[in-house]
Amino acid sequence: MSVVSKYDRISVIYDLIEAPVEILLYGKWRKKALSNLKGRVLETGVGTGRNLEYYPAGAQVTGIDNSEGMLDKAQKKARDRANITLLLMDAEYMDFPDNTFDYVVTTFVLCSIPDPVKALKEMKRVLKPSGELIALEHMRSKNPLIARIEDLVNPLMSFLIGDDMTRNTVENIKKAGFTITEEKNLAFKDIFKKIRAKP
């Protein structure tokens, strides 16, 4: 089953499943990272629209996702927001001109894109030269014990939602040609990070 099919299937209960971690951790990280953005913002992998409430009214936000089920949920959350546009689109093949956006945002999505480096190269392409990538992501820990636990859990997560917990996302961002300007550990040692990078 493809990653898209898995997310379509789980979209009905996705917010419910993630509610505890959203309340305890993700929500405050999202608010801090997104509430001051301005200009043209692209969110890749908008999912059910968890980030939408944190974008300021002055930002022109375009959110893309390749799961119709997840996007349907996001559309409901964006209904009264004139500054938000949501599109069905694959992050690896984006239909935007070069140098379009001031910011590209990813939150907990680079673990599930089949070819994350390809998608990141697309993000770099559509960013303005003065733009910035903002990523909240989870990844493989450099701590051997934590990494071993991730290795054990990874097959289940991959089967359920196509989520690869063992990716080295920092290196993938560099491989795509970005220059990292901030790499901040958020929780569970170095599993959850906030990353800012320039094209």
Secondary-structure blueprint of this entry?
Layout: H1 3-10, H2 14-34, E1 39-44, E2 59-65, H3 68-77, E3 84-88, E4 101-107, H4 116-126, E5 127-138, H5 144-161, H6 169-175, E6 179-187, E7 192-198
Parallel strand pairs: 1-2, 1-4, 2-3, 4-5
Antiparallel strand pairs: 5-7, 6-7
Report what the structure shows:
By secondary structure, this protein is of the alpha/beta class. It has one domain (3-198): Vaccinia Virus protein VP39 (Rossmann fold), CATH 3.40.50. The chain has six helices and seven strands. It has helices at residues 3-10, 14-34, 68-77, 116-126, 144-161, 169-175, and strands at 39-44, 59-65, 84-88, 101-107, 127-138, 179-187, 192-198. It has a seven-stranded mixed beta sheet with strand order 3-2-1-4-5-7-6, sandwiched between helices. Strand 2, helix 3 and strand 3 form a beta-alpha-beta unit. The mean pLDDT is 95.
Strand fraction equals 25-35%
CATH superfamily: Vaccinia Virus protein VP39
Order of helices and strands: HHEEHEEHEHHEE
Query: Distance between termini?
Result: 34 Å
Main traits of this protein?
199 residues, alpha/beta, Rossmann fold, 7-stranded mixed beta sheet, 7 strands, 38% helix, globular
